[in-house]
Amino acid sequence: MCDAPCDPGSASSTRCAPEFAEPAYTSRPKLNVTEATVDASYGVTAHGNPSSAVDAIINLPLVQDRLAVRAVIYNDSRGGYINNRPSTFSRASTDRVVVNYFGGVVPPNSGPINNSGSVANAINPVTYQAGGQSCVIRSTTTGRR
């Protein structure tokens, strides 16, 4: 994404108002500023798996007062904490599904259901990953007479 720099002093730049401030990872590149950050975290959930997150941001000016780029990478892995314990389930004539869809009669061949094939601990881990880059180009115009 290449875009003109945000000018908070401009009446037409409502995106730059404080209530629309962009987080660091979506901010536009800064001309004439070289900066980089790396943030990392690690956590443990009781009776669950550990979680970790890393994000890195770099801002590089390429041409003085004219061109800058910004790149971001992000990884957030959250450990699972829900344990799927062994269990067995059998339909009964009083089950809401049986009453609503089968008129109170348990369908034939609907024997017990068990989850033995999916028993595991911490079955709900989630990982979020993202990356991106953007640039700002400031152009100058010369008028002709």
Structural class: mainly beta
Number of helices: 1
Biggest sheet overview: 5 strands, mixed
Total E-strand runs:
7
Determine the fraction of residues in helical runs and give it as a percent range: under 10%
How many domain modules? 2
Strand order of the largest sheet: 1-7-4-3-2
Quickly list its features.
145 residues, mainly beta, 2 domains, 5-stranded mixed sheet, two-stranded antiparallel sheet, 5% helix
What is the strand and helix layout of this fold?
Layout: E1 2-3, E2 35-44, E3 50-63, E4 67-78, E5 88-89, H1 96-102, E6 113-114, E7 126-137
Parallel strand pairs: 1-7
Antiparallel strand pairs: 2-3, 3-4, 4-7, 5-6
Overview of this protein structure:
The protein has 145 residues and is mainly β. It has 2 domains: 1-7 and 22-81 and 123-139, no CATH class; 84-119, no CATH class. Helix content is 5%, strand content 37%. It has 1 helix and 7 strands, in the order βββββαββ. It has one helix at residues 96-102, and strands spanning 2-3, 35-44, 50-63, 67-78, 88-89, 113-114, 126-137. Strands 1-7-4-3-2 form a 5-stranded mixed sheet, with no helix packed on it. Strands 5-6 form a two-stranded antiparallel ribbon. Strand 2 (35-44) and strand 3 form a beta hairpin. The longest helix has 7 residues, at 96-102. The protein is elongated, with a radius of gyration of 28 Å. The chain starts with a strand and ends in an 8-residue tail after the last strand.
